[in-house]
Each structure stands twice: as structure tokens, then as C-alpha cells.
Amino acid sequence: MIIQPIVVSQLEDEKQYEVIAAVEKQPIQRIRKEQRREVPKVTANFKETMEQAHILSELKEMKKLLASQTFESKTYPPLYQSLYEYLEKQYIERSICEELVAHVLEQTKNTPDLHKGILHKELQLYIANTIQTKIPSSIVTDKKIIQFVGPTGVGKTTTLAKIAAMFMMEHQKKIAFITTDTYRIAAIEQLKTYARILNVPVEVAYSMEDYQRALQKFDSYDAIFVDTAGRNFRDEKYVQQLKTMLSDHNERVISYLVLSLTAKSEDVMDIFKQFQLFNVKDIIFTKMDETSTYGSMINLLWTENVRLAYMTDGQDVPEDVIIPSVEQISELIVSRDKYE
After folding, report:
1. How far is CA 228 from the centre of its chain?
2. Fold (topology level) of 139-324
3. Per-residue burial over 151-188, b = 16 or more CB atoms within 10 Å of its CB, e = otherwise
4. Which of 8, 187, 278, 279 has its CB 3.0 to 4.6 Å from that of 246, i.e. a possible disulfide?
5. Is the full-model pTM beyond 0.85?
6. Domain ranges of the chain
7. Do 299 and 93 contact (CB within 8 A), yes or no?
């Protein structure tokens, strides 16, 4: 810094004033330019450091993920590994896949000239034997009130009509319909249409009182088929209403939980667990013709105390309803056409 005196004179009183001013060696403008050049260097270094830290963090996460997958996954000989991967593609739970492949491996490991056909046959046999108690030998029920419950969009009304027609045509039962699904006008009209086709009476119950009166009205009939509303099963009001319906006349009621094979396996299990509040054990799977994966069905049959009463594979009434067998279920799970 240079200090220079500057003299300022006043002519009127001849007094003199001395002003001391300081002048920088470098102009202020130049210093500011140099400071601006230094700032980006600091920012760039900081940004580079953060990017490196982020990359390192991602690499650590990937390492953990790979380590966990390596730890959890099982490795099988090629033929069995192919079987395991096929079962996984069927959306069968991992623990069940491992149990199935472990059984087949144990039973066939010493078989000469081993090929897929042998694994296929052994797996089908094991599935059939395991689920045998889950498939009723007869679907004819002595219960007077046959209720159909489940979430929206699974085809409860159409399924009801198919089974009702079967009861009429094959078992000569005198039947009647009740619907409590008053939330959708289309559902009421649909059931009324089926009632006209089958020439059976139908009542619409807008309240529990209506429902009780309808039951009394049809007391002389062999079977009363009840269509319930497909609503959100987490809705407390709906749950309480359904609980009352399912608990009354318990000695005369059988309730079928209708589930769709096109739904995700996790959703199917979640819905089933919710309906355990009502102790529903009899299952109907619909839309068999709309999917080629059946893992949700085997997961439920394998792990839960249920009975698979019916399956449906189309919209036609009464044709597209199936009374399943253990052989048919095992063939669906391990179809030769898909597995080979």
C-alpha cells in the first residue's frame, strides 16, 4: 500500500489542509477478478469429492446386495436349476421352490439317464400327494345358504350363476338368489338376468333386515345362493356388515372366497389373511383362462388350511366351471408344454 499526501489549498483564509490517501498496488477490480477465478476451483473440488463419495456409497450397496443374494440363493445341478428357475417364473414362493426341488433331487439323484421328463413326473406326483387333502372329494354341500365373498373384479356373480346352474341341472336342487351388492346397479341387473335364464327367484337386500326376510322367504328351498358386495375388505363398516352375515345361521352357511388367478400372489395371500377374520376356508379360483402362471394357487394350498372347491376358465354359464382334481392342479403347475 502506498501513502501519498495531497495538499488542498483554500485561497480565502490562506489555510492549508493536508489529506492523506491510501492507494493499493493492485486495482480493486483486478483483485476481485482473481478472487472470482479462485472460487470455481474450490467448488469444482468439492463437487468432485461429493461425486466420488456417492459412487463409493453405491458400490458398497451393490456389494452388500450381491453378497446377500449369493448367500440366499441355492445352486443346483443344471437340470434341477432349470426346474427351480421354472418354478420361480410361476411366482411360487422361494421356500416352496426350494422344498420342491430338494424333494425331486433326493428322489432322482441316483437315476440313470436322467432327463426333464423324469423330474417332471416326480414333481407332479409330489405336488398331487401334498395337496390331496386340500381338494374335496365331493362339492355337493348340505348347507342351505351358499355365500360368495371376495374383492372387486374377481367374477363373483358369474361364478355364483355357474355353480347354481350346476346344482339345478346335475343335482336337481331347488334354488333361489339373494344379492346384498346394492353398491352397483349393474351387479343387481346381472344377477336378475341369470335368475331369469335359470327361472329362479331373486331378492335384493338393502339392509340386514331385508337379508333376514329374504332368508325366511326362501326357507323351503334346497339352496340359497347369496351374492355379496365386492368392496374394500379393509373398510371397517363393510367388514362388520360381512361379519354379521357370515356368522348368523352358521350351522347352515358355507362361504366361498372367490379369488382371481390373474392377481399378484402377494395380493392373493393378503386378501386370504384378511378374510380369516370370518374363518373362510373354501376357495374358488377364477380366470384360469387368462393366465399361464398359477403360483398364487400353489402358495395358498401349500401353506394354508384351505379347500379348493372350484375353478373357472371363461364367461359361459354354466359351462366354464371346473371341479378340480389333484392331477389337474399338479399338471397346471408343472405343464409339460411350458417346462420342456
Report:
1. 22
2. Rossmann fold (3.40.50)
3. beebbbbbbbbbbbbbbbeeeeeebbbbbbbeeeeebb
4. 278
5. no
6. 2-70, 75-133, 139-324
7. yes
